[in-house]
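ok so I'm stuck.
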Amino acid sequence: MSRGWGGQGQAAAYAATCARLCAGAHPALLSALRPLTGRRVLDVGAGDGRLARALRGAGAHVVAVDPDPDMAGLTVGLPELPFEDGAFDLVVAAFVVNHLDDPRAGVAEMARVTAPGGRVVATIWPSGATAQSQMWQRVLDSVGVAPAPGVRLPQHLDFARTVEGLQELLAGAGLVGPASPVEVRGAPATSHETPHVESIAWTHRGPVDELWDGAAAGIGGIGATVAAQPVEVRERLRAAYEQEVRALVVDGELCFSAEAVLGVGVAPGRMGE
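replied:
not stuck anymore, here's the structure
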């Protein structure tokens, strides 16, 4: 299922570092999924289970799955889910699609297990210059380290990590736009024939060493870069990180603007068909 985030055996490191950053998108996800009371929800790539717990707290009946046996839920991964067609009213994938070996097959499988009229809601990290990526680039540049080459998908499997790219991916799975407005962060989005996709942002706050600890544990693309360096260079990178984040510390916490892309696609048909 997964590629490029770190892999199995890193559940504890993920929960202690990057999970907090990912959780910043949960309010927008929950808004896009409502109403939740009594709904059957599949949380694909559940990670440490934070989103699944929030969904249960909102009254949903949740099944959580993740390909890493150390993560929350059933040890199951895309692109093959062991559920019947239309088994769930809502399917959510928080920062999962970025890491699939075959994103199109993965989204199609999520659409398959979504009941007619149900929603598939997904977030991805965007490409381009974000506050976090720019910060890491300055750290690498100050030490003279080039980013580790990423493993690129074949062109026919890949998709653009943009609003337009996620919209095309959801539409390619046969998903359509919501028949009624979707509320994301309390702002109603207009209905469309194509899936609704937008950029979201939030202010992330966490321990000062949080991002470095995730990178040092090999999480994400920056983790691959850090892991590839000899000890002496890693020490210089850490010093550069500490210097760089000084400007981002507010009241003893790391504070910066995080960005993501959120998409909502609806399975054709009417709920209950």
